[in-house]
Write a structure and sequence with these properties.
This protein has no helices and seven strands. It is mainly beta and about 90 residues long. The strands form two sheets. Strands 3-4-7-6-5 form a five-stranded antiparallel beta sheet, with no helix packed on it. The two termini are about 15 Å apart.
């Protein structure tokens, strides 16, 4: 996972420089092009204790994705995992 380095940014989060924060296990599912109605390129599932935030970056192989949303999935009131919706970062 990559997180923005604190500092001044003129053009929002895409202008920031990113540093590798940590590696973590995830289930990565690349969305087929015909399912792009929500403009999401991939989804990933991570463990409930994962500290991931929207606008973080996830690197999978040679591709870099921006975390669009993070949703906690619950079963009987307990967080079982987190679902990350990812958008391919162009230029990666």
């Amino acid at each position: 996972m990559l997180r923005a380095v604190p500092g001044e940014r003129l053009y929002g989060s895409d202008d920031a420089s990113f540093a590798e924060l940590k590696t973590f296990p995830l289930e990565f599912i690349e969305t087929p092009p015909e399912d792009l109605a929500n403009k999401i390129d991939a989804t990933a599932c991570g463990l409930p204790g994962l500290d991931v935030r929207p606008e973080d970056r996830v690197k999978s192989g040679a591709d870099v994705f921006r975390v669009q949303t993070v949703v906690e999935e619950r079963l009987f009131g307990v967080v079982t995992h987190k679902v990350l919706k990812l958008v391919r970062h162009h230029g990666s």
